[in-house]
Fold each of these.
Amino acid sequence: MPLPCARCHSPLPAWELAGHDVAVCTHCRAANTVRAFPAALVPAGAPAPAAFAAEGEAACFDHPSKRAVALCGQCGRFVCQLCAVAFGDATLCPSCVAAGSGQAKAANLETSRTLYDSIALIAPLISLLFWPFTLVAAPGAVVFTLMKWSQPISLVRRHRWRFVVAVIIGLVETALWVWGAIYMVAALRTKAPA
Amino acid sequence: MGCYIYGGGSSDEGPGMTQASQRYRPLPGHRRGILRGARVWMAGDHLLSVKSYRVREEYKRFQFRDVQAIVVAQCPRFQISTRSLLLALIWLSAFGLSSSTQGRQLLPEWDNTAMWLIAAALVCAWFYISFARSCRCRLLTAVSNDELPSVYRTWTARRFLAQVEPRIAEVQGRLVGNWFEAVDAYTIGPPGAPAEPASAPPRPAARSRAFWSTLFVALLFVNSVTMLGTLHSPVAVVLWLASLLVLAEVVATVGVFLQHHRGIVRPGMKWLAIAAIVKIGLVFYVAILMMSAASAATQGMNRSVLFESSTYVLLRQIDAWVSLALGLVGVALLLRSEYSE
């Protein structure tokens, strides 16, 4: 499919792309600013098929009939054209990538993370909507922070201030509960003799 | 080679250390929503699109060498960001202040007109920007055609392209000559369905009818009927019943949230649970405010008298009818065909 319009996905005509910075979509009339790169002109297709191993040639560990083209940088197994996984400057076998051990640890690219610091911060704040829940949420936030402090937070944020703020809010709310309880007990004691 | 995984890293690094040790630089454009946000970050060899859902972040990487094209289409985008909401809140606060201090002459007399003019200007500016200065940005690789939600204003798109284009060109080089004539002969973006990201993980089909969602909807009805039936009952009975039902409703909403998180129930039920929680909180605080006001006005009034006052009964009636409405919405969600979406 040629370059699609970012709004309606209809193909942008070549005459619109020619010589203009902006290509107008013939379908939705949206003005598209297009930046194309050489990767767009690389023919799509499957990787080259692995060659058959001749007599005496090293064969792939997983495909004994295929000629080995590289060694796995992690376990040292022979891998064929099909099995070789290029990872940075190294070549790994699919088993090592799947196992995610050693050098292949980094191959397990994370696609999501739970933000424990945000959970710790939100819990004592959102419980204010129905304040009796702060009795549980406030100390819960402090304990949760202590439990999850060393867990990785966001991939892009590097500060743990949310944890700190969560602990402060949690402690303040807990202190208020304690103060309230003491105040109530004191009030009951002063009322009792009368 | 069979396939490529980019990144690299030394063998003594911990899990995910390659990514964690990458220095990411924020790129222009930041979508700030109440519940969702998005931003694109740049590392040495790739772009990282981050979609955040308050307590969770989802990542997608685009290697510079894989990027086939970036297309920005001008189109209306009516996004309400947290900044817009903050502006609205500031305006509301200022308006409230000016209204409450008019009698005391703390602010000039024309402040009311000025406030409305400012509001009109802000709304007009938002409409103009949303309609005429907004865009949709898509990034195409051989296997994906993803929208970048953080780039939704034209000036942001310009700054985004100004930073990203040289980096990609540095890795890939530049297209020269009549490249647009050759483009038609190649496949740009993923073959087949262009709008769907190729790596979207298959999720189990969510449904609306599950244990917690059914219990939650049933509790909404029970709550509604009980409140309507005990509007003039003795205070002690009402308080105990209301507290127990509210507690059960909160537990059921937590169950709904968990089931939604596990992909068992649909988002509609989650939003219904959020609405129910907000309703519970509002009713709770309004009731407290009403009772505080009433006890301040009539010192030493008996608590049961306050509970039997017409305003409190009205609040409970409203609560009951809202619960009933939410319950009906819940039934509609439960009865929806499991395969309709």
Amino acid sequence: MSTILWIVFYPIIAFIIGLFMLGYARKFTARVQRRYGPPWHQLIFDIVKLMSKKTNISHGYMHDIAIMMLLGGTLLTLLFIPVPGFHYFAQYGDMLVIMYIILIPSLGMALGVGETANPNGSIGISRALMMLAGYDVAFALSFIGMAMLNHTTSMYQLMLIQQQHGISSWGIVVNPFLGIAALIALQGMMGEKPFEVFIAPHEIATGPMVEMGGKYLGIMMIQHCIGVFLEITIFINLFLGGAKNWIELIVKLFVVFTVLLSVNAVFGRFRTDDAVRFMWKIPVAFAIIGLLIVIL
Amino acid sequence: MYLKTILLLPAITFLISLLFYKTESVKKYLNLIVYGILFYYGIILYKQIGTNFGYNLNFSSLSVNFNVTYLGYFFTLMITGLTFLTVLFYLKFMKDENAPRDFYIWLAIKTFGMLGVVFASDLFTFFLMWEVMSWSTYFVMRKGENTQESSFKYLIYAVSSGMLLLVGLTITYNTFGTFDFAQIHNALSGASVSLLFLLAVIFIGSFAIESAVFPLHSWLPDSYSNTFSPITSYLTGISTRIGVFAIIIFLFNIIGMENINKLVIFKGISLMYILGLISAITIIIPTFTALEQYDAKKLVTWHGIGQGGYMILGLASGTALGIAGGIFHIVNHLTYVSLILFSVAAVEYRTGTTNLNKLGGLIKKMPIEFLGLLIGIIALAGIPPMNGFVSKWMIYKTLILTGHPILAIAAVIGTLGTILSVYKLIHNIFLGQLPPEYNNIKEAPFILQIPIIVLMIVVYVLGVYPGIALSLIAKIQSALNLPAVNYTLHGVSKEVGELNMNVINLVFLGGIIVAYLIYLLGNKRRHVSQYNNYAAGHFLTEKTKYNFNYKFYAALDHVISPWKKRIIERTEKAIISFTENFGEYFRRIYTGNLNTYTMYILTAFVISIIILKELL
């Protein structure tokens, strides 16, 4: 029974936390840049407005299905990530599964954007995929390192192992190199500056979102809230010992997010090839050092 | 006895194709029926696993022996199934007046050769059938324009593969005095490590050519992609994989796991690890070469090489999970790669091109082919819930847990490269702007869609119920004296870390339904044309090219190409200059003087008489 309740309410909780985090992000970035910034609940207004728009323009059935694949795939990924109190699905799929189901939303989005027949969108997708090839190498390496260190690929097991002796058994303390590599990769995964090449509003008119409006953009925003929650939770579960209760999880989420945002607030945008080059050099080097420490 | 029937049926198609040599319209239907019957017998062969028969050759003491093993049955299913689908697709794809008359003849011989290889129970039969198979492949692929040179390249490789095999065969027979697999296996347990190494290098080298393992792969992309598209699918799907079959037979049936463990060069670096490293390179380099192809068929055939690397990587891991993953990947690869190539071929049937820079926006015109290609690329990229993910998951998992980080990261990088290039494939054919010249294109004929729909279902079903294939694979492993994989209907059982594809699939469907409900919350949507698009204030018309597909990953190319220049081109230059010098040395043999040649022939004759006298 409690499992069913969790399945229903977990995505809602994740969405609300994500909403707060994104509201906080806008305020935080504004204050760093000495602006006043929108109120924290601006995103709620945005979503309600977009969902109730009268005209919704679509370019075909794939465009419609894409938006469902985007949200559906994100919900799928979310349910497989263990959080305090809920790890029912974690037994059916390990971290390797998560690494690949997390691509389903992006794939769906890519197909939908392709059908809109707008070159700005296609360029955005091409850049997003190149970024994927950039950050995922470091992220996979650091995950492989953690899995080899603890002899398991299950994210729930990794979480439990890190909770045994408090902070001293956290992944980022046991092997800081892997943790730093994953943190930099996370910056790319979240599309924060300096790696936001695929949104790039001034170059390619927000890339994938260029032909999205009305409820399509609204669903994308809902997905973004859940996406922010789940991407940072993956990092927390792998390197910061997960969380024993929700308050701990929320605190950790905001701490990690603040680190990412402070980088985001002060950096410009890398060119795509520079971003990929950076990703293949610095974080991969960190990850390889970490991996060598694990093996030797 | 089904085995005899199965080996006889290709002979019947051969006769049919000879009788109706000039009447394409009759022979194609007759052939389809016979290949259908062959597929039926391929399925019911399951009842007779373990039967065997031999046939003594009149002119010598040698005999040809066949038996049905689980592995043989597994490959028979794939060979007969894909051949049937290919013939079905070919039926409509080729117009009668353009069809090469001798295609069915060579297809019959090739099918016979492949079936003979998988049923062979001794080395002599194996070699005989191997030669039949590789020679007929040359004639099968030598169809269509510009195939002379590329298929001749294949022939050179195939002949050297056959020669290596002959050398291995001779050494084995001279040492142990027998051709039988089981007897060689028993004799090998007492053999020295150096002999084992010699045999391993010779045999695996020979099979690596056929299965296009990295340094020996260069014959494949051109020769496969220049032929007619259905044949490309057939060759990529099954023909290359017979090489992997041979590697399985050689590693686990002839040498045996207990002897493989002896093959260690020095601490930690074993034969299997070297094989793993080679297959890791086979994954990465062809996959990133595929990224820059602009011909759909060539792109997929390059991936065919890369995916072959995963199979051998799985086998080289040596664990129950890894070997099962490697074998499972063969059937997965067959299903999704032929699905992809059939879809591409159906597009080619209507548009007449496979050039990725000229196509675009066909999704509205050919939705079935789009769906086929979509499911195919999801499987090829190894994303759940399709079948390619399951086998790749098994390989990643075993590599991580047995402590092979380098091989595991190679597998992961290969998958990243695959995702990039398959998105380019589907985007440039089906997405983006539809060029005006394709405005009146229709769906492909229904006969071309049948193989696509069938394979779509197979790819999805094997993804959600991998247990269907894994049950057979577990039996193969027990028959080869290997530890069998712990499987369930939906994946892998708890002892090895559970994977349940059904749960993933259901949760995904549930997520889609929730997303659909949220989607319904908004107001009704309106479909608009591709010219009703954001163009920064410009008006788009039919004449405006507003598309992005040329050099899809230009930025990545900026990153990779300097590396390629540094490493690959220099290596290539070195190899070329070496070959030129070497060739110059050999050129002196060809003096152009008839007397010299006569002397050569005489010398060769005398030498071979001496050798034969020693042997017999």
